[in-house]
Design goal:
- This protein is an alpha/beta fold.
- It contains 13 helices and 15 strands.
- The strands form 4 sheets. The chain has an 8-stranded mixed sheet.
- Helix 7 links the parallel strand 6 and strand 7.
- The radius of gyration is 21 Å and the shape is globular.
- The mean pLDDT is 95.
């Protein structure tokens, strides 16, 4: 029979967070091995529970969750999101500017599908959360990666952004707080990006899913609060700040210069209608989450579990010879560097595969986040301190063995 092949649209699409190495890990688990997973920010499996009031509100409202909702979402959660944009000083947002989705991920793809024609370019950070690159490619566009500078605490390189703009550039993606680096961008950097977007009439896609997961008293600024004459699409949700990944409750807010984007917004409305609506139970959680006690503050503040685990993970990582890491100011991840003189890695996916096979620790290689060299990997610091200590002990043993094998010990 004629082989059935996947669409050519998927040729440049990859998502290595759930890629081939994860498949190997699943196989090893089936064989009875216990794997320490530091590959994905799935909070529930590490005993980070959602706020109880969210769970109770979903249960109480479940009898009313069987029908379709408005294609953009229910009135009450959209109103709560609108109020949240006001708290973030984003001006001019109405309920009609708010779209609720099955997680922010669905809305990322929807935003790109509605915008891009074949050959259109979108500026995406390197490293990035790989769904952004995949969504651009899947939508027929061309992702163009601008560099974030590790020596400057992973800040976007504004000059590199400017050099990579062409007549085909339609938008720029800003991931702040950043996944995978944990960087948090100051107002000065955000304002420079806004200035570039204004000059070249670019849409700004702002991924702010970790905007409350901040350490050491840091404060997050929404880039959309800095201008009214640029079009912004700001994405957020309950997955991380409220430990509710599986509820798939995210949102997208259109703000700024909307007058010249009527046709694009019509496209967004069309796609929102085509998928009928986001899941109703998840929508019931949004108003309570945004208006309730912000328990994330307890986790990231002094004595908080996430803060302790970040500090421990950074200490254990940077004690390993040849490993350096910018300490994250936000989010749930670190993006350490392996000194290429000590670790001459040619294929970082194979490197991560060897680590999994030898020490049963699962990470994601840096090139899986569209980083330009095979010298980084991403670490999730969600396991408890005992498990983190065990995991980094195994990583240290593997790296010691690697140094010996390559004569760089």
């Amino acid at each position: 029979m004629r082989p059935i092949q996947k669409s050519k649209k998927l040729a440049d699409v990859c998502y290595d967070i759930r890629g081939p190495v994860l498949e190997k890990a699943k196989q090893m688990e089936d064989e009875g091995h216990k794997i320490i997973k530091l590959n994905i920010g799935n909070l529930a499996v590490f005993n980070f529970d959602p706020p109880d009031e969210i769970v109770q509100d979903m249960i109480r409202n479940m009898h009313g969750a069987a029908g379709y909702t408005d294609s953009k979402g229910m009135f009450a959660p959209r109103k709560a999101i609108m109020h949240y944009t006001q708290q973030k000083h984003i001006r001019g947002v109405t309920i009609e500017d708010v779209y609720i989705g099955n997680g922010a991920s669905e809305l990322i793809v929807m935003g790109m599908n509605a915008l891009l024609n074949s050959g259109d370019e979108v500026l995406v950070p390197a490293p990035d959360y790989p769904l952004w690159t995949a969504a651009v490619s899947l939508s027929g566009g061309k992702p163009v990666h601008y560099v974030c500078d590790e020596s400057a605490d992973w800040m976007p390189d504004i000059d590199d952004i400017k050099k990579k703009i062409t007549p085909n550039t339609k938008a720029i993606v800003v991931i702040n707080p950043n996944n995978p680096t944990g960087a948090l961008y100051p107002v000065e950097v955000l304002q420079q990006i806004v200035d570039v977007a204004r000059e070249h009439q670019l849409i700004v896609f702002a991924d702010e899913i970790y905007d409350k997961t901040l350490y050491d008293g840091e404060v997050h600024t929404s880039i959309a609060s800095l201008a009214d004459d640029v079009l912004f699409l700001t994405l957020n949700g309950l997955s991380k700040n409220y430990r509710s990944c599986g509820y798939r409750a995210g949102w997208m807010v259109v703000s700024g210069e909307k007058r010249h984007a009527k046709d694009y917004i019509e496209g967004l409305n069309m796609l929102a209608s085509m998928r009928l609506c986001a899941n109703a139970p998840g929508q019931f959680a949004i108003q309570t989450a945004l208006g309730g006690y912000q328990s994330i503050d307890d986790l990231v503040g002094p004595g908080g579990r996430l803060l302790k685990q970040r500090d421990l993970a950074h200490k254990l990582l940077t004690e390993i010879p040849g490993v350096s890491c910018v300490k994250p100011k936000a989010a749930l991840y670190m993006f350490p560097k392996l000194d290429p003189e000590i670790y001459p890695i040619k294929d970082d996916q194979e490197f991560i595969h060897e680590l999994l096979t030898e020490q049963r620790v699962l990470l994601v290689q840096g090139t899986g986040f569209n980083w330009i060299k095979p010298d980084h990997f991403r670490v999730v610091f969600l396991p408890n301190t005992d498990d983190l200590t065990e995991a980094f002990g195994r990583i240290s043993l593997f790296l010691e063995s690697y140094r010996k094998r390559h004569g760089t010990y």
